Amino acid sequence: MYISPINIIKGLHAIVDANADIxxxxxxxxxxxDSLHVFDGLRKTLPLDAYPSLEFEPVSASTxxxxxxxxxxxxxxxxxLTVRNSNEEYTAEYISEVARVLLKIFNYPDNMSFQIxxxxxxxxxxxxxxxxxxxxxxxxxxxVNYRSTTDGSLxxxxxxxxxxxxxxxxxxxxxxxxxxxxxxRLPGEE
Length: 190
Known about the structure:
This protein is of the alpha+beta class.
């Protein structure tokens, strides 16, 4: 199993888009004409009107077998929230409040599990569809790091979103297999 990190980023992007009104309400309290700009991947430079920005960058993807018919994948995405500092008096408060609302959104129970766009399990079981969607089972953000550029013109809040996927495989073979207790019976049972 290998889920493309860009598809996970698209899922995170969709969560941000679905909550844009909440995020922009916080931003507009500090900068009345601004709204959040979201980018998939880091940019070398951004135009001045692209701040505040949120950039998603894949960090790691690991897979391990949990038993003979399932794998689990752990994925990490770095998120960089960058704001321009036009009012030094409110800079720390501004980035802290925007980062706080983003973390509340990502860690909200309804957003900790989501369907990954463009990712499907393939099935050859006649009782299941040919393809069915892959879901993030559990995703969250644990901590945030803040820093500013040396001239103080930009402040960045960097946090890592981590998510887990559990993928089951169809059984093919004569060896041990996953038992479906609803369909299968143990030997000797009627």
